[in-house]
Amino acid sequence: MNAEKKSYNSDFLIIGSGIAGLSFALKAANHFKEASVTIITKSEKSESNTKYAQGGIATVWNETVDSFEQHIEDTLVAGDGLCDEDVVKMVVEDAPARLRELMEWGAIFDKTSKGDFSLGREGGHSQDRILHHQDLTGAEIERALIAQVDKTENIQFLTHHFAIDLITEHQVKKRQTSVLEKITCYGAYVLDEKRNVVKTFAAKVTMLASGGNGQVYFTTTNPVVATGDGIAMAYRAMAEVSEVEFIQFHPTALYNPGEYPAFLISEAVRGAGAILRDYYGNRFMHKYDVREELASRDIVARAIDHELKISGMPNVYLDCTHLEYETFKNHFPNITEKCLTLGIDVRKDFIPVSPAAHYICGGVNVNKKGKTSIKNLYGAGEVTRTGLHGANRLASNSLLEGIVFAHRAFENLTQRFDKIKTPKNIPDWNDSGVVKNMEKILITHDRNEVKTIMSNYVGIVRSNERLLRAERKLHVLFEDNKRLYDHSELSVDLCELRNLITTAFLITRFSKARKENRGGFHNVDLIKKEL
Ligand SMILES: Cc1cc2nc3c(=O)[nH]c(=O)nc-3n(C[C@H](O)[C@H](O)[C@H](O)COP(=O)(O)OP(=O)(O)OC[C@H]3O[C@@H](n4cnc5c(N)ncnc54)[C@H](O)[C@@H]3O)c2cc1C
Predict the structure, then answer these.
(1) Is 466 a catalytic residue?
(2) What is the reported pTM?
């Protein structure tokens, strides 16, 4: 470690640069003009789940054919009885205003030749209500938000800065905290990867916007940054975490062995009329749900999983051959292009697909104001459990959740920011006694092992025996990793492994504790109880 400055102070510290972190940063910086806003992100500016979002953002835009009530109802049905109805109502009703803001920030959404927004349909939606930018909606949102952030003077945007742990009484007063006391967050310890130094970022307000954890599974649509760091950090700091057992598996990732992360074939493709066929070319969704291909994700993913188990084959197919090619290509240029690079011409070839881990519905508990159970720690986006998704997220509701909760957190802070004191006497990171890790290969092995355990035992369909096995194996990994972590010089790989193991543990433990099947959660040893 070198001897450069290690301690920094800002009014707002934002961990993550997806839709939730960036939109919160813009609001905070533009409203509190004198305040300092720091965004830290572990990779490049735009690298995030947001960047890969294809389908779009759900919102009731055309009230002559759609209504808030229908969007609310669709969300509640997908959530299978576990949504918080008040939260669903709040998010759905906030949506048009938040979308208008995104447009004011420069995000462009597709329009029809008549100049109206081109609204797409996805599984579980009873109306066309998905605003999109071709099949690259997330990349367009990141482009627009980053352009705004870059021209906002009081925002400092630091890339390759990895948040290791939140700072609470545990570090400041050097004592063990308890879940029963009121804990306060004072910022975070952050590894500056390029300079190899752990910095102290003290802050009045910390916003956790660090996204999801798809990387705990082998097959996932999530980029490599999605390692559950935020959930693990918050859990270690004793924040309340819940409903992490509800992992959403996307039914149709492109089956292309060796490609990680898996390329997504957006749900909007089924919304546009694509048909699922088994390995031998037969349709099968009618056996599982009257909505067939447009049933919600949990149902379609389980149906495919079942078909794969029966056939013993690695994939099913998505048939787009009957769709009008020019329209398809215009709406899905990225997917069309990707298929072509693999020799798949959607005019005559079926697209091979299989399910992949895609989204975590639970996470760090936040209330309607984006507040976690820890004082001055807010949360927004995929890292959180808000009550919007219940047991299964409705397609295209998550980008929306991110901007709505970033806004709600900001609104709450307009009431109380002035009363928050600047944290003082925050100790620097203590790295005495650590040595350089000469066996990095152990980290790679363990990372693969977490993924293997989770894919084999805590996948789409679980059982009591599988969950027990997962827990036992994760325990061994946890102990091995703790030894390595306590004695080694820190690296991003090592910290991510620690977080992957913690998140995997939480998913497994919460799965064991759940005593009924709901939405995306299915344990063959349980039945579904009516609420
Ligand atoms: C392929 C794909 C397609 C999708 N399509 C859609 C869609 O069409 N519509 C929809 O609504 N949703 C979609 N989703 C889900 C949606 O993209 C995400 O839920 C949403 O973008 C999450 O936003 P976020 O801001 O919470 O997190 P993210 O966008 O994931 O951002 C998290 C940020 O935190 C950073 N970070 C993480 N850990 C640390 C750390 N320790 N230190 C510093 N920085 C850290 C990351 O680098 C990243 O910048 C899709 C997801 C994927 C993967």
Answers:
(1) no
(2) 0.95
